[in-house]
Amino acid sequence: MTQRVNISRRGFIKTGIALAAAPLIVPARVFGANDRLGIGFIAVGRRGLQLKADFLEVAKKGNAQIVAVSDLYKKRMDEACKDETWGKYQDYKELLQDKNVDAVIVSTPDHWHTLPSIHACQAKKDVYCEKPLTLTIREGRALVTAARKHKCIVQTGSQQRSMDKCRLGCELIRNGRIGKVSVIHTSIYPSPWECTLPEEPAPDGLNWDAWCGQTQPRPYHKDLYLPRANPGWISFRPYSGGEMTGWGAHGLDIIQWAMGMDNSGPVEVWAEEGDPLTRPVVMKYANGTIVRFDEKEQTGGGLFEGENGKIRIDRGKVEATPKDLATEPLKDSDIHLYKSENHMLNWLECIRTRELPVADVEIGHRSATMCHLGNIARWTGRKMQWDPEKEVFVNDDNANTYIERPMREPYGIPKEI
Q1: Which H or E element spans position 386?
Q2: Which domain holds residue 221?
Q3: Average pLDDT of span 166-194
Q4: 87-89 and 64-70 as β-strands: parallel, antiparallel, unpaired?
Q5: How far apart are alpha carbons 215 and 283 in whole angstroms?
Q6: How many domains does the structure of the chain reveal?
Q7: CB atoms within 10 A of CB 250
Q8: pLDDT tens profile 78-88
Q9: Which of the 8 DSSP states describes residue 199?
């Protein structure tokens, strides 16, 4: 059974991932065969330029073009737009007012993912947002609410969902090739730490106060401004969840997919003894399956141990022990997961068809939540019960304080979504 969800005007096709209750999505405007999509880029740093290259590879096939760019650093924005006639806006809210922009690609630092994405939904612009989708669990639920309310297509940049081997590995597990899964091993994924970098002069043309966004402003330093420098903002707690949300957003997303938990998550989480940033984390699903973040596995997915063997899913790789577990082709009657030819192209196609993309906003939120739970387990240092339906810790007021963070105004989640 193919679990691809069509949410066109004809309504829903019910699937095994419990999305039948989602709202009907109707295109903001009707696209003709020759009507090219106008795409705006919000942030064109290291990852933004990579996504720009990914987009240009499929732009013709997806009948789309870049029409506008926004970046808080004017020099970087000008360089990205060199020899182009695209609209240029240091304030992304001005880009969202550009009538030529139909959809946006958000490739900001992690602490800036949610607000532009919510504002884009409010402006009826579809969104491709880089992973991890959010900085906190509360941000994730707010973004899902915005996407559904404003009927927007939101793709999470978890591109392993569009890799054939990753999908195959998940299909093998979902179809019982290794029997009941008892334990899943995945990487340690270090947590972030507090930033203590000294002050340096900020480059001319960079709006550093706006870059700090929801966080309390601190002095500029090049190794804070860049994502992976020495060490870069991805390692610092005010701006990111560290590699737990960096690489973890890829690996744990595959675990969620293989376990059929795209709309749920674990029910218990705790951290074992060790270094505060790299303590082994353990999670437990309601069916008894354990996920261990340990040194046994260094992967962009996981090592799944079952009654009948093992399957390892890595970034674009799948291996089975014994090998014949993966050699027999799937039957037509087996579970067949969402097949995506290309992650960026899938998003462009879904903008036109109004089908949910392969890494829909709810999926991205749930996978990011697993990452956030891992960090919270290390910060609290105790076993906690998690309610994946209500998205709260059970009878643990202290743990629930980590579901969100203080947000500096005017960069907080809008009161009206």
Answers
A1: strand 384-387
A2: 199-235
A3: 97
A4: parallel
A5: 29
A6: 1
A7: 24
A8: 999 999 999 99
A9: P
